[in-house]
Amino acid sequence: MPELPEVETVARGLQKAVAGDAVESVWIGKRPQVLKSAAREIEKAVTGATIAAVRRVGKHIVVDLQNGSAPVQWVVHLGMTGSFVVCPADAPLEKHTHLVARLRSGRELRFVDPRMFGKLAVASTAFSAAGAEPLEIGAEEFTALFHGTRAPIKSALLNQALLSGVGNIYADEALFRAGIRPRRRSHTLTRAELRSLYDAVREVLHEAIAAGGTTVNDYMNALGESGRFQFDLRVYGRETEPCLRCRTPIKRIVISGRSTHYCPKCQK
Ligand SMILES: [Zn+2]
């Protein structure tokens, strides 16, 4: 499932590729599952609009459109298997394509999603995510946020109402770097531990963004390329393999239904 670095990578790629372009026409498929606004509403907002900018808000991609005098936001969520890509108009149409926007430049912006957990919507008021932005939150605010919950720290990191965009892979990686056991109750962590975790979360997200995200199953960037951060994972997906720091086998447990990886020696 795409997490913050993957969504950031897609948004940056699209910003580079399509900002300043305009949508000439749009085709929307017949599967209603991914449409969170009515098809005719999306069509009306997008057709003829200039793409002012593309950016990430939480785990959403927000396309700022200028259509006539009113700014409109086109909000896209990749769900589990969604991809939002720009390609030449003659590129073969993939199965499970739910939207094709024909651009003035002759290219197309396509939304493809086999499992249909993704979302397409338009909004006329500023779109915002529920939780705090992990790359913008301050250390004090971060500490207060996690001292305010008794949930295991792994679950708290995944709680999108607290932090927006940190998913399973980066939660495991950040806890390893901070030396904290995933089952520890959030409110029992010391200020120093939360400070290390704060630094680790930001470090791991920045490194993953620099590597173009993590491709575990089928994530692709805006140009249809894979990420490279899967080669830098220290605990995630490394069950029974030796810890890179102390050689102890990495353990896998399940917390709130999510697969969790940690080193029983390095993480306290
Ligand atoms: Zn270790």
Strands, helices and their partners?
Layout: H1 4-18, E1 23-28, H2 39-46, E2 50-57, E3 60-67, E4 70-77, E5 83-88, E6 97-103, E7 107-112, E8 119-123, H3 139-147, H4 153-158, H5 168-178, H6 191-210, E9 251-255, E10 258-262
Antiparallel strand pairs: 1-6, 2-3, 3-4, 4-8, 5-7, 6-7, 9-10
Helix pairs in contact: 1-6, 3-6, 5-6
Zinc ion binds at residues 243, 245-246, 248, 263, 265-266.
Describe the overall structure:
- With 268 residues, the protein is an alpha+beta fold.
- The chain has 6 helices and 10 strands.
- The strands form 3 sheets. The chain has a 4-stranded antiparallel beta sheet with strand order 1-6-7-5, with helices on one face. A 4-stranded antiparallel beta sheet has the order 2-3-4-8, covered by helices on one side. The protein has a two-stranded antiparallel ribbon with strand order 9-10.
- A hairpin with a 2-residue loop joins β2 and β3.
- α1 packs parallel to α6, α3 packs across α6 and α5 crosses α6.
- The longest helix has 20 residues.
- The chain is elongated, with a radius of gyration of 20 Å.
- The protein starts with a helix and ends in a 6-residue tail after the last strand.
- The relative contact order is 0.15.
- The site of zinc ion has 7 residues, from loops.
